């Protein structure tokens, strides 16, 4: 799940008030024409999200003098691994890929199998891997989890951070207008000027191999950070109502 927006540097905010255009001449500052009653603001935001997928590979090997013995040894363990993954990990067949390789080396037969598993629930992933190590011991080798983001998750975060930056700009425009007794009208221009993306902030472990990271450090190193800066122009409202009130009072 995306994390709440982190603190961002203050955006540059300015407003320029000039006389209102004629009724048949709308503001055209956004098009490079004469300025109307507008407030110009920059807004920025930053969001972070942890990985939503983890890939684990289970390796099975056997070397025997007879072909049937080598195949049978790997097949029994392979069946147990796939059954455990489905029952304890809640993994569907679409998220499990099995690769087999059978070869002859000198006077022996070698059977190898790899089971690639994609997890979305990291708690179940840990439980499944721990169970396989406990039951199969050294007869299996389990890789460290590789955490990553799906493209859908990254695209969602990009949209969310852009919307947050626009909201920041709108809020600043409202506060500026309130200082002068005005209110914010419709947006005349919204432009995303800059987007930055980075992954992982492990300052104290940059020289270590990823295999030496703890579980939480691996999650942190795979966390994606996206920042967005937007420029927006909003219409300023309020002066006409004040003039009408003054005329009515007189």
TrEMBL record:
Pfam families: SIMPL. The keyword rRNA-binding does not apply. This is Interleukin-1 receptor-associated kinase 1-binding protein 1 isoform X1. GO terms for cellular component: cytoplasm; nucleus. The gene is IRAK1BP1. It is found in: Cytoplasm; Nucleus. Keywords: Cytoplasm, Kinase, Nucleus, Receptor, Transferase. GO terms for molecular function: kinase activity. GO terms for biological process: immune response; positive regulation of canonical NF-kappaB signal transduction. Belongs to the IRAK1BP1 family. It comes from Notechis scutatus (mainland tiger snake). The keyword Ion transport does not apply.
């Amino acid at each position: 799940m995306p994390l709440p927006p982190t603190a961002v540097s203050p955006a540059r905010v300015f407003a320029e008030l000039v006389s209102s255009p004629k009724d048949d001449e709308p503001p055209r500052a956004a098009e490079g024409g004469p300025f109307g009653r507008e407030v110009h603001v920059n807004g920025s935001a930053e969001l972070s999200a942890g990985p939503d997928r983890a890939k684990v590979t289970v390796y099975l090997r056997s070397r025997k003098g007879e072909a049937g013995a080598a195949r049978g040894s790997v097949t029994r363990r392979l069946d147990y691994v796939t059954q455990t993954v489905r029952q304890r990990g809640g993994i569907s067949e679409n998220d499990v890929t099995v690769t087999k390789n059978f070869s002859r080396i000198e006077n022996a037969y070698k059977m190898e199998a790899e089971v690639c598993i994609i997890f979305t629930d990291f708690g179940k992933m840990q439980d499944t891997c721990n169970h396989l190590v406990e039951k199969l011991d050294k007869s299996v080798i389990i890789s460290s989890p590789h955490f990553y983001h799906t493209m859908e998750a990254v695209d969602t975060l990009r949209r969310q951070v852009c919307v947050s930056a626009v909201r920041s700009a709108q809020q600043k425009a409202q506060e500026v207008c309130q200082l002068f007794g005005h209110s914010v009208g419709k947006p005349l221009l919204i432009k995303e000027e800059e987007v930055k993306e980075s992954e992982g902030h492990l300052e104290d472990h940059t020289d270590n191999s990823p295999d030496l990271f703890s579980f939480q450090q691996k999650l942190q190193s795979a966390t994606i950070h996206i920042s967005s800066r937007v420029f927006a122009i909003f219409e300023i409202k309020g002066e006409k109502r004040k003039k009408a009130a003054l005329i009515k009072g007189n």
